[in-house]
Predict the 3D structure of the following.
Amino acid sequence: MSMTRTALRRHRYWIAALFTTWLSLALRAWGLDFQSLWRDEVDALRFATQPWPKLLAMFTRPGENGPLFYLLLRPWLAIAGHSEYALRFPSLMMGVLAIPLAMTLAARMRLSRSARISLGLLMATNPYLIWYSQEGKMYALVTTLVLASTLAFVEALRRGGAWRWALYWLLTTLCFYVHVLAVLVIPMHMLWFIAGWSSSRRRWRGYAAALAGLTLPYLPLVWWQLKLWNSSRFNPGFPFIPLDQMAIVLLLAFTRGMQPTFNAWGTTPAVFLALSGLWLKDDRMPHRGTLITWILLWLLFPPLALFAISLHVPLFTDRYLIWVAPALWILVAWGASLVARYCQWIAWLALGSILALHIQGVGFQVHTPIKSDFRQAAALVEGAREPGEIVMPIMPYIRYTYAYYAGNTTPLVDPPYTNAGATPEQVDAQMRRLLAGKAGVWLVISEENVWDKRHLVRAWLDEHGKAVLHARLARVEVIHYRLVSSP
């Protein structure tokens, strides 16, 4: 009878696990191409399809992030094409793969089946993870690779074997070539090894060999990273964020996704269950202290390390630490299973609240334009632009995104750069030269302050032309000027 019950429970678990995986696929496919491509995604397309010598040079060129992602993306684009759906589909699949990987890792951490199912549901429906599973960049892939690397690390500690340590070496190497800051997983795992020393010390030879092996593939990155670190001119363009604000940004992002949040009440159920996972006793967990230490190190070490780096060179943005999010949901799922032992309705209420907030957040993301809407901007301009009129993107780098939707035959003219102290007289001279003989200008504006924070280009056009159309789209403005007289 007991064997029958065990087999039934196992059968139910696998059905639930399969359901969460299919649910993650459905939610990530829902509205995959709703948001317009933004400049980073178009960059991914450009970098992946550039000539081979330029693509391979990215592996050693200072400042490049994620060259392996573009290399892996290249053959896919050659097969599937360059549409929005094709560009984002690999991220969708990597986002789906993260769910069973996380559940398997939780199983190796000795979490109960109910905790693993909760984890699968939480990650399958999480709007933040879904957002980056719908973006043509490396963030879904690096999350999956860190999970795979961590799973390989845990398995190698448990069972040993040269091939397991070799697999760990390979997966970890892929991590930091897909995203440069994923290298922080190496010291994180080192701290895991130290924290579990009583049981991990018997595997020290295999781990030492893997750790030594990781230095070789990292050498090309170290060369240019040290060069930029010591350069007084290196400025990645990120503002400095204090540590407490970093923590708030990460918590809101991981729990609420891209939906604007004006208070922290929406994070309360997740925080409650996470604290429950830390504080409630679990007599069925033989190495509870080590597991809590591991999860806390996963949650806290990468942000602290990035903050330390940012004291010298500001580099913080939440998506760079997306691979920390699974640690939060492992802790939340564990907490839900522990609370359920004391009071099931409280656990179900907290877990259900999180899932409801997740679905609401996903719905917001697939029905509200959030990314810079160059798709609509290009349709508006190209549908009304007349011969003799040009398009002026400001900042100029958005020309690539605009051209993706408008086509490469659109006449694009870069405006004068004014943030280095250009005077109105200098702007006047340059604008007269650029617009000589033109009947009108379509100003397409996004991230204007990077190029012209004093708005001198707009002021010149207001003086020498007449604005006949002004459209405000998501993160993009379009202004159509008819020039009063040809400059």
